[in-house]
Amino acid sequence: MSSSSATPREGRKAQAAATKPPMRDALVAAAFELFPERGYEQTTVDDIVALAGVGRRSFFRYFPSKEDVVFPDHERCLADMTAFLSAGDDTHEPVRRVCEAARLVLGMYAENPTFSVQRYRLTKKVPGLRAYELSVVWRYERALAHYLRGRFADRRDGTLQADVIAAAVVAAHNNALRSWLRSDGQDDASLTVDHALGYVQAAFGTPPAPAEQPEDVVVVVSRRGAPLWRVVQEIETTLGRD
């Protein structure tokens, strides 16, 4: 037997390490196991790390505060949204672009409906978490407004338009998101948010250019030798003109 071959015990350890959730996910899972049992305010960071089986230093490596463990994916989603908007160019209709960016946030929630519903219920009960959530929403709104300000820089009241549209997108998205969360994640999230963002698109967006219609061809048959005025009259009648 080669000396590099793994023993059965080493194999079990490797398998356990492979199936063990990443430390960040383990901390989130531990926190949301404790919050319903003890309450958010009563649960400490020490409680969370003890259940997760890691050190206190590990917690703060991933989360600056206990509030951040409740919203673990918003930083990633905000970065994705910013990158998506930055990748846009002048060929993208700006209002449609920010509506598509808002759908990235919905996608984050829809990735794990059970967790999203659990967080929604927790946030409703804890005023401090509601305030924290509002600060996160404001950052999304600022990202949308920053993009629109750049696109509307040459417009009269461009900054005003950008801020109003960004606020409308966030309001429409949040209305749809809360509706979906109140359904315990059972409704179709995409249909709900598409319906809500449709209002924003209709109110502020540029409608797509109509498809070019094929030209009509009109054939008029007239007797040989008919006077010109009679031919003109027949054409006008065919075209429906008085």
Report on this structure.
The chain is 70% helix and 0% strand. The chain folds into two domains: 47 residues, Orthogonal Bundle (Arc Repressor Mutant, subunit A), CATH 1.10.10.60; 134 residues, Tetracycline Repressor, domain 2. The chain has 242 residues and is mainly alpha-helical. Helix 7 packs parallel to helix 10 and helix 10 packs antiparallel against helix 11. It is built from twelve helices and no strands.
CATH fold title of the largest domain: Tetracycline Repressor, domain 2
Pattern of helices and strands: HHHHHHHHHHHH
Helix content: 55-70%
* Poorly predicted runs of 5 or more residues: 12-19
Strand content: under 5%
Main pleated-sheet profile? none
Task: Give the termini distance in whole angstroms.
Answer: 102 Å
The CATH superfamily of the largest domain is known as: Tetracycline Repressor, domain 2
Inertia-based shape:
elongated
CATH architecture of the largest domain: Orthogonal Bundle
Radius of gyration: 30 Å
Q: What is the CATH C level class of the largest domain, in words? A: Mainly Alpha
Average residue-wise pLDDT: 85
How many domains?
2
- Can you count the beta strands? 0
Q: What's the tally of helices?
A: 12
The class by helix and strand makeup works out as: mainly alpha
